[in-house]
Design a protein that fits this description.
The protein is of the alpha/beta class. The protein is built from five helices and six strands.
Length: about 240
């Protein structure tokens, strides 16, 4: 009897030690060392080298197709790229929809997005990229008409929501409502709209490239200071400018 109890205890200990392995849900918050800050200096230098390839004031329209091994659908958001000597300006606009939301909820969601936007801009800025991102409400004058620019803003927690590049959510559910986490999540999903692919493990995409732990496209459930773009991401974003 004593032996059986000890055996079961050892089994439970082994199973618990294994439970901290791979994370199936990339949106699930994870525990990380907040002292470990991602260093974007290498990527910033690469952005500068891309900007040096064009004359000052050079400008072009662009759009990258996001596609992952044929499993997930693609999209392409129109954007403007401009060389500023030692930096690059990326300008684009998105139209916001509010599925099944009443007026107070719409106003609250828009307020939360506007509060998150400076963090989004700062993330690009630390890589030497000036982000000019304009949000329009649906039917607002000047709103882009392309379907690829349409974003659904939802209230998290009322019903199960699939968070992706088309569906952004704010709410009161634990980590989803944590400002830093929300910023990283939105930068990640916004980057899909610009053409970047996921880099975390997914059994549906067995041949996917797996990024570094501090790659924005691998780890999106953490503080934005702990993730960054890599030069490969910049080559995709700025194809007309980068070697």
């Amino acid at each position: 009897m004593k032996f059986s109890y000890l055996f079961v205890l050892l089994q439970l200990t082994f199973l618990l030690s294994c439970s901290g392995g791979s994370r199936n849900n990339p949106h699930e918050p994870e525990s990380r060392d907040l002292r470990k800050i991602a260093d974007p200096s290498e990527t910033r230098k690469f952005v500068q080298s891309c900007a040096a390839n064009v004359t000052l004031g050079w400008e072009t329209s662009a759009g990258n197709k996001y596609w992952t091994d044929g499993y997930y659908g693609g999209t392409s958001v129109p954007m403007q790229l401009k060389g500023n000597g030692d930096s690059v300006t990326l300008a684009t606009a998105l139209t916001l929809h509010y599925p099944e939301a009443d007026s107070p909820t719409k106003e609250g969601l828009r307020k939360r997005l506007d509060e998150t936007k400076p963090c989004l801009v700062e993330f690009f800025s630390k890589h030497g990229i000036t982000l000019e991102l304009t949000f329009y409400n649906e039917n607002e004058t000047g709103a882009p008409s392309e379907s690829s620019t349409q974003i659904n803003l939802r209230l998290y927690g009322e019903r199960p929501i699939t968070l992706n590049m088309r569906n952004w959510a704010f709410g009161s559910d634990g980590a989803i409502d944590r400002p830093g986490y929300t910023c990283t999540l939105i930068v990640h999903e916004f980057s899909h709209l610009l053409g970047l692919s996921d880099e975390y493990a997914d059994e549906k995409v067995p041949n996917r490239f797996i990024g570094e732990d501090d790659s924005l496209m691998k780890t999106l459930s953490t503080d934005p200071a702990q993730v960054k773009f890599y030069p490969r991401h910049i080559k995709t974003l700025f194809k007309p400018m980068c070697p």
